[in-house]
Design goal:
By secondary structure, this protein is mostly helical. It has six helices and no strands. The longest helix has 37 residues. The protein is globular and about 60 Å long.
């Protein structure tokens, strides 16, 4: 019986890694799409890259449901089930933000003003770095490594930097001579991009709490 449960736990862990790999593919599609838009090629391949981002996000949802079915089939002890499922649901909000940003650009046919490109590029870069660190943190959690707390601090620092960049961009938007309606559109886009690092920070703190509970 214990051997059977061990095999189920290993299968859950394998699925979690597959889930993270799929989210990384969604992130890569998002990064490529944003790169096109910030490079002045927003209409080229944007629809395809949005479809790719959605495809990987949808596949991750399917994997998460499989994990849920296995875990509630007694693959893990009850306390672990709630922690892990809560963590995966929190992580799942990140690819939803990728989609939301891309859909805003697509449906509103937004062109990023040239004077904002460098700042937004930096905001995206650091936000995605936060996501990369969260994936490292999740690996550290499931492999019972000791690097979780240092990663929390790095993600928190990056998230604060993103907040600073976001405020700077919004100030520049409303100090500009852009059309008032475009100002609101671009501001909303920037806020949504900024939410990526915010969500990564929330996930990071959740991982840290799970890790601390294990040590009690």
């Amino acid at each position: 019986m214990f051997r059977f449960l061990f095999k189920k736990e290993e299968r859950v862990k394998s699925l979690i890694y597959e889930y993270m790999d799929t989210l990384k593919l969604s992130q890569a599609s998002f990064a490529e799409a944003i790169g096109h838009c910030l490079g002045g090629e927003c209409r080229e391949n944007l629809d395809f890259l949005i479809q790719q981002t959605h495809k990987f996000e949808s596949k991750a949802d399917d994997i998460r449901e499989e994990i849920k079915a296995m875990m509630y089939g007694k693959a893990l002890i009850p306390d672990s089930r709630g922690d892990v499922m809560g963590l995966l649901e929190a992580v799942d909000n990140i690819p939803h933000l990728f989609e939301r940003v891309l859909y805003m650009i697509q449906t509103q046919k937004l062109d990023i003003p040239d004077f904002l490109v460098l700042d937004i590029r930096e905001l995206v870069r650091i936000s995605l770095e936060c996501c990369d660190l969260v994936f490292k943190q999740m690996t550290a959690l499931f492999e019972k490594q000791q690097s979780i707390r240092s990663l929390v601090a790095t993600i928190d620092t990056n998230e604060s930097h993103c907040d600073h960049i976001e405020r700077r961009i919004i100030t520049r938007i409303f100090d500009s001579h852009l059309d008032p309606f475009l100002k609101l559109q671009v501001k909303d886009l920037v806020v949504q991009i900024g939410e990526i690092s915010d969500q990564a920070d929330r996930v990071s703190r959740r991982i840290n709490i799970i890790s601390m509970k294990r040590r009690v």
